[in-house]
Structures are given as C-alpha cells and as structure tokens.
Design a protein that fits this description.
The chain is built from five helices and four strands, in the order H-H-H-E-H-E-H-E-E. A four-stranded mixed β-sheet has the order 1-4-2-3. Strand 2, helix 5 and strand 3 form a beta-alpha-beta unit. The protein is elongated, with a radius of gyration of 15 Å. Helices cover 37% and strands 16% of the residues. 37% of the residues are buried.
Amino acid sequence: DHNRRLGDLEQNQSNSNVTVNTLDIARIGLNNDDRPSPSSDPALQALNLPDKFDVRFYTGSSNLTLNAQLQINELVGLMVRYPQLRLMCTGHADLSGDRVVNLNLSRARATTVRNYILDSGVNSERVVMNFFGEERAETRGAKDRRVIVTFFVEP
C-alpha cells in the first residue's frame, strides 16, 4: 500500500508539467518496490508510525507554526534513535492565488520542513523533498496548505 502510493506520486508527477528540484523522488527511485515502510522494520514496527503525517501552514506562508515545530522536533528525535528511518517532504498549496505562486509556495514549504530537520543535525541524504503547488488540492482550503511527511526505511 505504501509503495503503491509512492509509485502513484511519481506516475502523477511524470504526467504533469511541474518542474521538480533535484531532490525529487524520481532521482532517488522512491517508487521502487524495494523501499520498505517503517512497519517492515522490526525496530520501528513497535512504534506504530503512520505512513505519513501533515505539517500545516497558514495562507500564503511557508513559516513553521509552533505546533509544526513541535511535530518536527518529535520526528527529529525518532530519526536520531532510528538511523534507518528516511523521510520525503512533499509540499502542497491550496487553490487560492496564482498557479506559479502556489508552485513556488509549495516548494518553499517543503524546503522549510526539510531545512528545519537538517538544521537539527539529520544527514541530508535521509530527507528528500518534492512539491506540487495546487495540483493536488482537494478541499480548497486549509487542509491543502501542507507538507506531507512520508516515512520509509533504507533497504
């Protein structure tokens, strides 16, 4: 299920006209079936980690809220204790505003989350990013202003 979703991400991305930076999931082959989820790792299995979670943002902002910082701090603690844990940060925007501005905003959001994690001392190869602008907007509101953090483990 986890690998299917990641494969869908890349498939949908390859069908879009969105330019993605070099830390893109396609570059690292994250859609491969050999990219196991945390539930496949005995040390991580007992944690019952979700496949992913959302970091939310205010309208037009890529600044982390206090709640987002607390979420990410917990995540960094997990990454320190479990070096096999890897992340993909996927930025999104809602449908309000200009499409190009939203694409740049989703990139800025993903970059902000990734940089916050890296500034905590996590190795850069463990955190990749992707972004879609408003292309994956679902609700036309606050739920689309997010970075989806997806967990996987190094095979």
